[in-house]
């Protein structure tokens, strides 16, 4: 697609004579574009990449994006008119449209599903029901007293929203009241369509322009000598806006709230000055990211970092992708900053991807000290309006550099020079629901390919696939094995909890060694991090007498006990219920918790160390917008002694005073039933170990609690031997034909009736195997959790070799087989989820 979509496609003279149509992408899961007729007054204004409002179905209106402009009416249906053009200049670039199309084809979904995920909610319109008086109504005797009151109010306004009606009529069932009035034809209900994005306005005040003249200003002050409160208001304004030095400052004005921040200026005095024309008020759009940072300029790299930066640039001269393998604490971020500065100096854009919002919070502060307000930030904890401002800031050129999580790949870049994918091994880059089920790292590579940009993949524990590509010479490989500031890697020890339980030296879930290490750390005033990759208090509750276990009614999983909320919760469907006092099966009072999560560890820590300041960081404690930032700042400033959390604390966080890391339940991580389990265990435990001992004056310590200290992967973690892990894993992957030697597509069949789901899965697998063969088509089998949200699941795994196979043709065949299932009369209610490059 042509990226110069902001240019008119036709001259005015040609537009006058012809009727035009647009092919639109609608944010719905339908595998086609829709053709609409362009209203004559929009001719010459509507452009590819612009948003429009269109009717869809009987009563819906939608935001759509123009993908094509032409003069061919649709053959199979009557084209409806575009209702409204939202953008004078397109907010979606040609590169984005190209990306949306590629993603829909590669990840086997609809382009509308891609658009729905790509556009922030603030760029989509919303419908709000409104009520207005029907001027033809003339039967007041039909009305009740409440209806009469409401109609009297409606006569005073063009229209009122349901919320406004509610405020007027008080504690009344508003929908019932309005329904009654509609039935009597007294009111008309309609949908008002509006954009969600609302600019942030600041109300300001300034002196009327005549008083920019020094003589007139002096005369004004003399006149106000008999009105001291009004004179004080003017003097207060002049203290903030020194007109004597620069009269032009008056045009910028002053926040009205700032003028009266100490309540020393009375509202009546200010109102009188405005009424008399001394002051005038006005409103300005204020950016939501208005903090001012003073860039510190160039950073200083160590010789090892400089060598890594230089080698990366040398690779970029011949390769598009470079893998930067730097151990934890080696200072990869400083190398990134150096490269970003070079690219920005050349006039190109930079996208810096991070896997977690928690990591974004800390790194953003470091980057803002270097790049100031020229840097945009984009992630899901921001409000709709904040994300729209970043989106528009890129289009306008305000932001040349953006830091964000995986959804940032959808931003409207058109001049990318560099994409950095930090912690490239992280599973957080993979979107699981809804479609498209994309991997941000792979999407970033396609973005870079189309815009002739470079990609830097960074990690202390690279994914096996990326390291394989580097070893094969397809990627450049830069390695940095020296910690920043001559700090040493932490000393890692294994603690045999099976032995300690036998000796009865455990304190709840804490081994005696870990307990003593935490005590010593608290005495020295040093900080500790404890890692348990399971949230909640306990994984489940169980009756000691009949062995009943609390189960989710919708999913085939036990309910997790959350003590703070005093409830049982399903982490798959969100079902919640109260904790039973008696066993619901046998009536026993012996209902106990089994296992432990982060909440239970936090609770035990408070008992074991009552004077310690303890904080928990997991999904339950970080739901609020600024929760990540608050927890990290508290820990960073030394107001927290022990931080306990899930995997979000393992990723790239940098704390000087952390000298101890404890890892719980290592065996569950290692023995998770999937082919990447060993790789993931190494990555997770190595990453969290890297949070310890990042200062040169002391070596950190890591304690791993395990029931089997002889497991081979644990020795590789102790030795920080990624190469040994890679050597063993790549042989296993090749022997069993797993990535990087194959591509995986997982098909999940779902239905509320298990027999129907199984029959559909068997038929689908048989159809696929006819052409693909049994070796490529595995299953169907029940997944680890075989029922979710009352739907029974069956997985089919398709393994496709990377060489000598037409991937596009195979996907077309898979789609054909799926269509055959979904159009079968007996299987129509079945749904099939497609996950390309499943993890």
Automatic annotation (TrEMBL):
Residues bound to Zn(2+) 1: 543, 546, 583, 586
Single annotated GO MF: zinc ion binding
UniProt domain Helicase C-terminal: residue ranges: 578-738
Residues given in the record as Zn(2+) 2 binding sites: 552, 555, 570, 573
Entry keywords, A to Z: ATP-binding, DNA replication, DNA-binding, Helicase, Hydrolase, Isomerase, Metal-binding, Nucleotide-binding, Primosome, Zinc
Enzyme Commission number(s) from the entry: 5.6.2.4
Parts of the chain that traverse the membrane: none
Record text on cofactor binding: Binds 2 zinc ions per subunit.
GO BP annotations listed: DNA recombination; DNA replication initiation; DNA replication, synthesis of primer; double-strand break repair
SUPFAM superfamilies: P-loop containing nucleoside triphosphate hydrolases
Sequence ranges assigned to domain Helicase ATP-binding in this UniProt record: 313-480
Catalytic reactions of this protein: ATP + H2O = ADP + phosphate + H(+); Couples ATP hydrolysis with the unwinding of duplex DNA by translocating in the 3'-5' direction
One GO CC annotation: primosome complex
InterPro entries with a match to the protein in the record: DEAD/DEAH_box_helicase_dom, Helicase_ATP-bd, Helicase_C-like, P-loop_NTPase, PriA, PriA_3primeBD, PriA_3primeBD_sf, PriA_C
Cofactor: Zn(2+)
NCBIfam families: priA (TIGR00595)
Record's subunit section: Component of the replication restart primosome.
Protein name: Replication restart protein PriA
Organism (species): Fibrella rubiginis
Protein's gene: priA
